[in-house]
Amino acid sequence: MNKTPSTPAKIELGHVTHLYLSSNRAFMAVKDINLRVEEGEFICLVGPSGCGKTTLLSLIAGLEQPTSGKILIDGNRVTGTSSQVGYMLQQDYLFNWRSIEDNVFLGLEIKGIRNKETEEYALHLLDEMELIDVRKSSPTQLSGGMRQRVALVRTLACQPQILLLDEPFSALDYHTKLKLEDLVFTTLRRHKKTAILVTHDLSESIALGDRVLIFSRNPGQVRTELTIPAPIRHALPFEARNQEGFSDLFQYVWKEMEVLSDAAKGD
Ligand SMILES: Nc1ncnc2c1ncn2[C@@H]1O[C@H](COP(=O)(O)OP(=O)(O)OP(=O)(O)O)[C@@H](O)[C@H]1O
């Protein structure tokens, strides 16, 4: 990750502002966001509800165009969706009438890249995610954590370089969530993916991220940026929570969020 400032970042946002327009009003969801994400970095976004986290992911994914400012991936302007970017949501969107492996192959089919080689890669990912034994099952036979793992495999099977993860663990029970965090962390590092994760779980953001960005709302802006120290950053998320300094970071992020929540009461 030792890049000179002149090297194009994996993702770069310059003065990004986005307004949602309706017939009778304009609402500024995010304002003047500047961000540089290097290849292989894991960035976590936290902030109060409505501060523009999902909007930012939609802009990076090319699903929306910013009202002003620019978004670059590898130095190229984002003008629409791209196979370089995988987007995973809280809901798994698996089709119950297709088997697990056919759900995983669906992304390949849609992109027109389903062949023996890409299928083998997808099956390899299913194996890594400990799902190979259930590949012929229906999604209805799987637990919530397993379904989320299938959704992640479906996203990774298309080999995106960038993963946008919008609260992918939030609907899971705590135990499953901790296990899945470790698995996702290991998989994304092993495959050298660049990731941006939106979460409401402050401890998750510190345990998973290289950097945590705390957003304020009305309009959505980066209030604080926190670089996570190496011993915490390099540990598996479950272990990271036991590292020295973790609880101080948690207290710090918690206090920042309290300030934002008090400010929101005055909105
Ligand atoms: N399509 C839309 N049209 C109008 N306003 C929108 C639209 N989508 C989002 N907004 C508004 O923009 C603001 C930011 O929304 P966004 O979903 O990005 O926030 P968020 O931080 O992801 O929220 P949460 O944590 O609750 O998921 C909110 O006030 C929301 O109501």
UniProtKB/TrEMBL annotation:
It comes from the Bacteria. Pfam families: ABC_tran (PF00005). The keyword Transport applies. SMART domains: AAA. Gene3D superfamilies: P-loop containing nucleotide triphosphate hydrolases. Coiled coil: none annotated. Residues 11-242 form the ABC transporter domain. GO terms for molecular function: ATP binding; ATP hydrolysis activity. CDD domains: ABC_NrtD_SsuB_transporters. Keywords: ATP-binding, Nucleotide-binding, Transport. This is ABC transporter ATP-binding protein.
